[in-house]
């Protein structure tokens, strides 16, 4: 039975039912919630729930749609080479679990950038928070944009609803189920959304295996025979964008920066009862993330195998492969699973971003901790909710900006630019943890602006400068190193402020 002809009304019913379920979970979990519940759930989150929710946030809509598509396409992350990055993740998560999280718990932080204030001073503190906000806002808005575009085509456009209205509705729904409970609610909704996303992947794998008459025992051999099974790439050297060492080191650095130095991801960890449970959460999360990414890559191989079986031409963009087959060439239940999985993957990342950005503004810039006694719970709740609305509005505006400049190369470059802003965070935290030197705090912002600009220029001309070498994700290491070197030049020995 094909899903061709699944009506927009059916899609609307599916999506509406899904959001009613999320809102019901939010209603249950947000009753009698306070600001402490919104920010860190008063350290009462179950560690295994946090692990499952983080899994969905790490996968995101880009992984759900893009990674399966690149398996059969030439270029970066072809075949199973993405597993090299995933193995690097394990090293990164070990570093976070053993070094960063114990420090965050010891300092009793709500915002992890409070460490920079204790270690260096106010400017460093605000700079770290600002770079996180810029990175998260652009990166998450881009991911949300990809998902909203698909939903708009499938759901809203057939009813004549303009794209800006689709965006407003999409962001409003996040606000509705997070505005009251915050991280307390997200721990539960993200767990639910992770299950929905993984269910979509597993069901699609099963459906294609059935269509191709492949058993589970013969699946590895079928993928190998189709030419998609290669995992490790050594022969191309450093010039190869799939080189093992480049991918492995990139995976470790990406994890340390985009999880360990990211308020969204660490806020969930800090909501656990103690450091022991947070570390158990990180261990479970690491193991399940490897399994989940392996499933996504298996799905990608099967999608390409099924495309060739149907003798269909490859879509213009590899991102279109999964939507094409799920909505037009697989059973109806796969179309339904794909829609729910798409929504879950997009919202699993976006809801945490809104909460994390709200936390960053309230704690880092409005001084909620410092002014708690003076302002009181009622006033701070009012300020926090207004801030949450403001972040939602800005988030929607950024997505609409992507629509206005909807030229693939421009948007992709803008998304990559967001990654550059994590480099200063890597440099700041590394300098604080690896040295005992005192910074001239007022100069920190200039170093953190200069490093990404220089890194961008190096990456742009790397093939000319380094005899064909492409840096890829390793530009993050270059960015962090440049920040570290710059900080060294504005530092002196001794007199460390607020040494951790």
Automatic annotation (TrEMBL):
Gene Ontology annotations of biological process type: sodium ion transport
Principal localisation: membrane
Taxonomic superkingdom: Bacteria
Membrane topology per record: Multi-pass membrane protein
Transmembrane segments: 6-27, 47-67, 87-107, 128-155, 161-179, 191-209, 244-261, 282-306, 326-347, 389-405, 417-435, 442-458, 464-490
The keyword Repeat belongs to this UniProt entry's keyword annotation: no
InterPro entries xrefs: Na/Glc_symporter_sf, Na/solute_symporter, Sodium:Solute_Symporter_SSF
Keyword Transmembrane helix appears in the UniProt entry: yes
Keywords recorded for this protein, A-Z: Cell membrane, Ion transport, Membrane, Sodium, Sodium transport, Transmembrane, Transmembrane helix, Transport
One matching Pfam family: SSF
CC per GO annotation: plasma membrane
A molecular function (GO) term: symporter activity
Localization: Cell membrane
Family (UniProt): Belongs to the sodium:solute symporter (SSF) (TC 2.A.21) family.
Protein name according to UniProt: Sodium:solute symporter
Species annotation: Candidatus Opimibacter skivensis
